[in-house]
Amino acid sequence: MTFELGDNQYGKAETRLVRVDRGGERHRVTDLNVTTTLAGDLTATHLTGDNAGVLPTDTQKNTVYAFARDGVGEIEAFALRLAKHFVDRNAQIHRARVKVEQYGWEPIPATGHSFSRAAGTRTASVTYDGTTAWVVSGVQDLTVMNTTGSEFHGFPRDRYTTLQETSDRILATAVTAHWRHSGSGRVDWGPSFTGARDRLLTAFAATYSLSLQQTLYSMGQHVLSGDEGLAEVRLSLPNKHHFLVDLEPFGLDNPNEVYFAADRPYGLIEGTVKRSEAPDPGLAWW
Amino acid sequence: MTFELGDNQYGKAETRLVRVDRGGERHRVTDLNVTTTLAGDLTATHLTGDNAGVLPTDTQKNTVYAFARDGVGEIEAFALRLAKHFVDRNAQIHRARVKVEQYGWEPIPATGHSFSRAAGTRTASVTYDGTTAWVVSGVQDLTVMNTTGSEFHGFPRDRYTTLQETSDRILATAVTAHWRHSGSGRVDWGPSFTGARDRLLTAFAATYSLSLQQTLYSMGQHVLSGDEGLAEVRLSLPNKHHFLVDLEPFGLDNPNEVYFAADRPYGLIEGTVKRSEAPDPGLAWW
Amino acid sequence: MTFELGDNQYGKAETRLVRVDRGGERHRVTDLNVTTTLAGDLTATHLTGDNAGVLPTDTQKNTVYAFARDGVGEIEAFALRLAKHFVDRNAQIHRARVKVEQYGWEPIPATGHSFSRAAGTRTASVTYDGTTAWVVSGVQDLTVMNTTGSEFHGFPRDRYTTLQETSDRILATAVTAHWRHSGSGRVDWGPSFTGARDRLLTAFAATYSLSLQQTLYSMGQHVLSGDEGLAEVRLSLPNKHHFLVDLEPFGLDNPNEVYFAADRPYGLIEGTVKRSEAPDPGLAWW
Amino acid sequence: MTFELGDNQYGKAETRLVRVDRGGERHRVTDLNVTTTLAGDLTATHLTGDNAGVLPTDTQKNTVYAFARDGVGEIEAFALRLAKHFVDRNAQIHRARVKVEQYGWEPIPATGHSFSRAAGTRTASVTYDGTTAWVVSGVQDLTVMNTTGSEFHGFPRDRYTTLQETSDRILATAVTAHWRHSGSGRVDWGPSFTGARDRLLTAFAATYSLSLQQTLYSMGQHVLSGDEGLAEVRLSLPNKHHFLVDLEPFGLDNPNEVYFAADRPYGLIEGTVKRSEAPDPGLAWW
Question: Where is urate annotated to bind (chains A, B, C, D) (predicted)?
Answer without folding.
Answer: 57-58, 152, 169, 213, 239
